[in-house]
């Protein structure tokens, strides 16, 4: 298994992973993926990969057995969208159900290393969603072992269709 920066030739496989991720999410029955928007998002993440300024991204893939087993996209934005320092926010972290368990950890470590290397970054954020299909408390414990602290909570009200 190899963790590496995404390339243009990875976009089709990354799109399939996005579709798989969405199908596993709680939103799958409520709304469809807007395919052109999803493809555009992947292309923009690829184009902005590796920067250290507002809007820059970190787009890596986990490759194993001749296929993409996962992807991660993180992005930089101003703290609270108005600060003079940046925050790194994980946007997507996803692996196939049958991926090497080290794939997600390798991509996560790559994201953290990138964020730490950005001089303007004041905070690094991590989250997780139901699409990962992992025990949230186990993942939270991993994040805490990496030096992260819980900060607030997110609440959601899903609107009927």
Structural notes for this entry:
This protein has four helices and five strands. With about 160 residues, it is α+β, with helices and mostly antiparallel strands. It has a single domain, classed as Gcn5-related N-acetyltransferase (GNAT) (Aminopeptidase, 3-Layer(aba) Sandwich), CATH 3.40.630.30. It has a five-stranded mixed beta sheet, sandwiched between helices. The longest helix is centred in the last third of the chain and has 16 residues. It is globular, with a radius of gyration of 16 Å. The mean pLDDT is about 90.
How big is the Rg?
A: 16 Å
Q: What topology, given as strand order, has the largest sheet?
A: 1-2-3-4-5
Shape: globular
Low confidence ranges:
none
Regarding CATH, which class?
A: Alpha Beta
Q: Count up the domains.
A: 1
Helix content: 25-40%
How widely separated are the two ends?
41 Å
CATH superfamily: Gcn5-related N-acetyltransferase (GNAT)
| CATH-derived topology | Aminopeptidase
Short account of what is shown:
The protein has 161 residues and is an alpha+beta fold.
Write the layout of secondary structure elements.
Blueprint: E1 2-5, H1 11-24, H2 35-47, E2 57-64, E3 67-78, E4 86-95, H3 102-117, E5 121-125, H4 136-145
Parallel strand pairs: 4-5
Antiparallel strand pairs: 1-2, 2-3, 3-4
Helix pairs in contact: 1-2
Structural features:
33% helix; Aminopeptidase; globular; 24% strand; 161 residues; alpha+beta; 4 helices
